[in-house]
Design brief:
Layout (H helix, E strand, L loop, with lengths): L1 H41 L13 H12 L3 H14 L6 H17 L8 E4 L6 H7 L4 H7 L12 E4 L5 E5 L4 E6 L2 E7 L2 E3 L8 E12 L2 E3 L10 E6 L5 E4 L13 E4 L1 H10 L5 E5 L1
Parallel strand pairs: 3-12, 10-11
Antiparallel strand pairs: 1-2, 3-4, 4-5, 6-11, 7-8, 7-9, 7-12, 9-10
Length: 282
Amino acid sequence: MARLKFLLAFFALLICAAGVAGAYYYWTKYAQPEISVTRQITGDGAVKREKPDLGKRHYDAAVALLTEGELVSARDRLLYLMQYYPESKTFADAKRVAGEVNLDLLISPIPQPEKTQHVVRRGEALITIARRSDTTIDYIMRANGKTTALIYPDEELIVYPLNYRVEISLEAGTLTVYDGKNFFKEYGIVNVNLPPEVAGTVVTTISEKVAWDVDRPVNFTDANYLKCSKWIRTGKIGLFIREYSPERTGAGAAPFGVVVEKSDMEELFTILRVGTEVKLVN
């Protein structure tokens, strides 16, 4: 019995020692350096030094993962940085890179949750496949490398349900796409021209997506569809998402809407579908 008590006491001592060692490691590795630097910043007469950027190591790790082709792990590391280290100097770059990686993962053949293969049945068209799969015609075309709307029976097409939402911040000058609560990608706003009645917070949905070939609307079967200019109309009168056009920047010539770069509009036209929620905040 005495020997058993001795062994139990010995193991308890080892556990305590391990706990103390772990606490000491954390203190010397993380807590003490930050406290030390903070004192040097705030203390009277102390040499001012910059507080360590705790998010940078996550950014550097994400970049290393990208070079190894580990897109999902890199994206997750960047999202972690954005959530827990918003004060990091690498935050803006992390947001930009995370958005690009998200789009690459969406468009590429890389397997993702909910990304499936649709086998074309006789009589089907892109528009019916897109509607049944909660996706867009443009997504199906881009994800499958198609330059025309022609599809064939037994052809395998990548499809993905695009259940995003949009938040437009006039103060920040950004249009941000979210996948539920999760960040997907952010776009810069080039110009804003909204009617007076579009004020305060507005919550609506996308009601129409239109492609224009010069002065005529066209659909996805048109030979010039991929080269067309595009805009998105919402259920709020005067609230459009448009692509930048230098010909329409003069006084009185600019139509109502939130304007983004043409390349950004192509992406938004691809990933946003009719019914997508749009929230406008000042």
